[in-house]
Amino acid sequence: MLFLHPCTMRRGSQLTPEVTVIGVKVKSAKKVMTGPEAWEKHWSKTFSVMPLPDMYCGGRGTHVAEFMKMATVPSTALARDRRVATLSAEGRLYLLQRAFYHFSRAVIPLGDLRASMRPVEREIELQTDWVESCCDQQGSLTDEVIAEAELAFDAFLTTDNRRDSLQDGESEFAVARAVKKEIEMRYGGQS
To answer: Which of 7, 22, 60, 150 could pair with 65 as two cysteines, CB 3.0-4.6 Å apart?
Structure first.
């Protein structure tokens, strides 16, 4: 599982040459360990792992990412077509909270993490819209098309300090409008 803040893993639109990963293993092959009862029983006091219930979206199984099993790997070893899942925005918050606790024993409230991650989450959302529109227009999901779209998005966001403007709540909406307008102009796609 890729680990660390999205900004730490990337240089522009590209992954850094080496990225940090966490080992993932099966906790239960059949049981999906989620919900308030499972959270209290299995996860509320176990901060050495990040629970990944129903990772394959098949209605069964629970995996865990183990913070004690960290390594650095070349980003070239991470083939896009072998990706299994992506954490939701809420999942990324829990990952950060659990990692902070595991490494420092400090409990960072989710609200604090949510506020600090808001610009990053907004950028992820805008990039997703951009890439999906490009892929729809091209009729292709190849690595080349996706990489080209990510590069174009990064160039657009870097221009006129748009990425920095995402940090400011008032400017964030202007940047989002500019991105959506550019998507429509380039790809005629979703906005």
So the answer is: 22
